[in-house]
Amino acid sequence: MAFEPKQPQKKLKYEELRIYTDEELRNYTEEELKNFKVKHSIPDVEELEKGPWPSFVADAKREALHRKKLADDRVMIPKDVVEDLLGQLQLSFDDGETHWKHGGIVGVFGYGGGVIGRYSDVPEKFPSIAHFHTLRVNQVASKFYKTDFLRALCDLWEYRGSGLFNMHGSTGDIILLGTTTEQLEPIFYEMTHELDQDLGGSGSNLRTPSCCVGKARCEFACIDTQDLCYELTMHYQDELHRPAFPYKFKFKFDGCPNGCVASIARADMSVIGTWRDDIRIDQEAVQAYINGEILPNGGAHRGRDWGKFDIQKEVIDLCPTRCMWMEDGKLKINNRECNRCMHCINVMPRALRPGEDTGASILFGAKAPILEGAQMSVLTIPFMKLEPPYDNLKELIDKVWDWWMEEGKNRERLGELIQRHGLWRFLEVIGVPAMPQMVKMPRANPYIYWKEEDVPGGWDRDINDYRARHKR
Amino acid sequence: MEDIKKAIIEYAESSKKSKFYFKDMEKAVQNKIPGAKSRDIKKAATELVNEGTLIYFSTGSTTMYGLKGRGITEDK
Ligand code: HEM
Ligand code: HEM
Ligand code: SF4
Ligand code: SF4
Fold first, then answer.
1. Options 3.20.20.140, 2.60.40.3780, 3.30.413.10, 3.40.1370.10; CATH of A210-276+358-439
2. Cβ of B56 under 8 Å from any chain A Cβ?
3. Per DSSP, what are the bridge partners of residue A252?
């Protein structure tokens, strides 16, 4: 299936958008870098370069040198921002506390999110980072970029910002790290008008939705995660840009239970692709795996010799619900018991494939540990068909938001509200019956609260009828 | 819409705090105008922001509203 853009795509020509020449982009040698010293003494920060991993300190030093060698009029914010940034980090190590003020009033016209105000609380020491605001840029679904776009964004950010950015932040956005207040509107204008690129969410609003690579590259995808992510991003623009929620709200879309964007751990609403018919089995390919003709796990984990592939040990015995067995040389699955863990499919992708009646499971309430500890989202809708324009999912989202916006306290995540009111209340609000799998452990207290509508005849009874059968 | 905007401004001016959550603003408006819908309160607040009367204050994780020029650390 060829890629069909939803709206006409702007052709970006880097040659027209570019700000720097090749010479300016490669303006220092490795030799110069070796001898380069940032203007502050940063011994503890430099310690971070010594570990086994690539270090942001090494990257930041490159950028510091690169900026230092640009002509003064080739950048719009101070050339030494990166050096001041590293200097303030050293001061934080010395003092054991941060020197960033928390929050501020910054934003771009009409948006309540996407820009996070950061101010140094020691601006006299580090004047270049007195304002050092972050911008969140809404990444494209699945994070496929053209190099023209990336080059143009890099040039823009070098010119109007610190030149430092993250590909990508935990939520998914491209994070542009550090610029002054005056540069916010010009950056926003150039991003939206020239790069055809929007800011993402921050603060008490819908955060930038994100999704796995899905059908673009992955044979396991049970739903079109990119389409879903794009559609909901566009549908909920107002929620994304104009904060009116009690706190943040995240959507994430995984195409299958492998969960490459870890929606189950990180999203207030996790959408995870799944199927409700049977796993498709190619018995010949099963034999080929058994005979060693096809490498298990798509050839991964070959760093050492694990011996001959053993389907009993490596697949059947590891099935969490013990619903697989061999019978007359054929692999059998009791699909009623399969909980779609993906293990067998991951090990033998040529032999096993998800079913064809696909859709998604919807889970709610994951969050980080601020209150009550971290929690995963709770499986709420075991299966929902998901076809454009996804009205069934939107209807569900609207119900959940209405409840949360009404009942949620300031700074209360959906998961915390569900804990405070009880899952039963949440289920009632969205009109979904409870199922035994939602019970974490059997009741530890003997009381059951009935509601009048649950009791045949309600609270009223005919006392004479009762007394006819029960003497006082 | 205009009376909701008026109620918001009254709340923003009289509130003890210079920045406040949407919910608290919503409650204050609903006290003055019973039955005001939260969607309309949000629309009114957005208009006030666009007009430059209200401003957003964000820590990055949470957003609050405030009256422009009233006490919050503003950029010079
Ligand atoms: C010989 C002495 C006592 C006996 C045999 C006794 C027996 C019981 C029994 C069988 C129950 C029901 C438990 C249940 O429903 O699971 C109960 C509940 C209760 N007892 Fe006692 N009790 C005694 C003394 C006391 C005393 C001294 C107090 C208070 C100072 C007390 C306060 C209560 C209360 C408040 C309940 C209700 C608990 C609830 O509803 O969850 N009992 N008692
Ligand atoms: C000295 C003797 C007894 C004492 C002090 C006693 C005390 C109590 C108390 C305080 C309660 C709690 C009532 C409530 O929570 O409303 C209770 C409940 C109960 N008792 Fe007794 N009891 C005694 C004898 C008996 C006997 C002989 C039986 C059975 C033949 C019995 C069966 C029960 C039952 C089934 C309940 C639970 C009732 C319910 O939850 O609705 N008790 N008892
Ligand atoms: S979550 Fe599933 S469908 Fe999406 S990329 Fe990962 S394995 Fe593929
Ligand atoms: S997907 Fe998981 S639960 Fe289902 S049959 Fe395979 S190993 Fe068992």
1. 3.30.413.10
2. yes
3. A210, A270
Q: Is the peptide bond before A389 cis (omega within 30 degrees of 0)?
A: yes
Using a CB-CB cut-off of 8 Å, the residues of chain B touching A411 are 62
Spell out the residues 6+ positions from residue B36 whose beta carbon is closer than 8 angstroms to its own.
B4, B7, B29, B30
Q: Which residue has the higher pLDDT, A89 or A5?
A: A89
Question: Which of ligand 3's atoms lies nearest the C-alpha of A215?
Answer: 3
A104-119 pLDDT tens trace: 777 788 898 999 989 9
Q: Is 70 exceeded by the pLDDT of residue B4?
A: yes
The Cα–Cα gap between A175 and A108 comes to: 16
Determine the pLDDT at residue A1. 62
- Inter-chain residue contact B56 with A410, CB threshold 8 Å: no
Residue with tokens 């720097």: A20
Q: What is the pLDDT of residue A435?
A: 86
The rounded distance, in Å, linking the Cα atoms of B1 and A408 is: 25
Q: Establish whether this prediction's ipTM goes over 0.90.
A: no
3-state secondary structure A193-232: HCCCCCECCCCCCECCCEECCHHHCCCCCCCCHHHHHHHH
The share of chain A scoring above pLDDT 70, in percent, equals: 99
Contacts of A173 (CB under 8 A, 6+ apart): A136, A137, A138, A139, A200, A208
Q: Which of A99 and A6 is assigned the larger pLDDT?
A: A99
Taking the C-alpha atoms of residue A318 and residue A329, their distance in angstroms, rounded to an integer, is 19
Q: Which residues of B touch A204 (CB under 8 A)?
A: 21-22, 62-63
Which residue of A lies nearest to B61 if distances are taken between CA atoms?
A: A203
CATH fold group of domain A280-353: Alpha-Beta Plaits (3.30.70)
Q: Starting from the CA of residue A228, give the closest ligand.
A: 3
Q: How far apart are CA B51 and CA A318, in angstroms?
A: 62
In this complex, is the C-beta atom of A119 within 8 Å of any C-beta atom belonging to chain B? yes
Asked whether residue A388 carries a pLDDT value surpassing 70, the answer given is yes
A19: its two tokens: 């700000």
In the block, tokens 């934080």 appear at: A92
State whether residue A116 sits within 8 Å of chain B by CB. yes
| pLDDT score for B71 | 62
What tokens were used for A136?
């969140």
